[in-house]
Design brief:
The protein is an alpha/beta fold. The protein has two domains: about 250 residues, Malonyl-Coenzyme A Acyl Carrier Protein, domain 2, CATH 3.40.366.10; about 60 residues, Alpha-Beta Plaits (2-Layer Sandwich), CATH 3.30.70. Helix content is about 45%, strand content about 15%. It has 14 helices and eleven strands. Strands 8-7-2-1-10-11 form a six-stranded mixed β-sheet, with helices on both faces. A five-stranded mixed β-sheet has the order 6-3-5-4-9. A hairpin with a 4-residue loop joins strand 7 and strand 8. Helix 12 packs across helix 13. The two termini are about 20 Å apart. It holds the Pfam family Acyl_transf_1. This is Acyltransferase domain-containing protein. One of its GO terms (cellular component) is cytosol.
Length: about 325
Amino acid sequence: MVHLFPGQGDFSLSALLRAARTHRPVRDALAGVLRQADGVAAEFGIRPLGPWLLGSSPPSGRELAAAAPGTPQLALFCSSLAVSRALGAVGLEPERALGVSFGEIAALTAAGVFDVAGGARIACLLARSLARCDGSMLLLQTGEEQTLVLMRAACTRGLALACVNDPGETVVSGASPAVAALERLARRRGVTATRLRLPFLSHHPSLTDEAHCFAASIRRVPAAPARFPVHSAVLGRAYGKEDDVHRGLADCLVRPARVPEVLRQAWTSPVTLLLEAGTGQALTRSARSTLPAAAPMAHAPLAEPGFPWRHPGRLRLRAASPAEVPR
């Protein structure tokens, strides 16, 4: 069992709130995580999320984005951790985790490296760092090789390959004018290009100073040994006992994330389930595209209306004999 923790580009507040209303394990897990995180929220001037998200008048995604700096990041951290805990509560505990960019914070917290307050503090400190990282990020529906060709053809400086999501999807980061030029070129060449709705850039080598400052700011957050392996799309493998996890998180600001490589490492068996610990299905799509044989084993619980929260054993049966178990 592998839990997949996505980055900031695929967060749906409406999916989270719908799942919390519909599925008791999600609501209970979310309430518990938010209770522990809200003490940290106050330190950063963030409105307590528990009463807000689970109250009678929850915010819209736009209202959440317009709230105090760090609010969306803290909500994303809490939601990913809550989905992982909800899955565990119904018997779908992770044996491994895979974190992509911001998702590494929740993945490491799920593995016990950080407690909830520590993970929440790191999420808020990263949000503070990102506020100083002006730029844009562009999602391209093409592979790494063609993306590099487009970047060279754009004849503009400052672009960097930020993420390889799967064999046919990448993300590029850079200064907004450079990203806009690449976007125009991609569309002229028939490549679907979508600007990510994130008011900053990340995974860019120009952010070295910000990465050093962020690493220093989170040093005071204690780290414990992981209870299970946590694969990092930036590190390119699972964290080891000798790895500096604080530095690893800071490296997400400056180094690219390569999802296919760590998916192949984490999917250790044809019957290994891959469950997205997030509100969307970006990593589920990446898994299905990267590992065609794993497609029946990859699920996005909050994005699949028919996910068997009440009968999770059905997933294990499909994993044991996917061709024989009826859907």
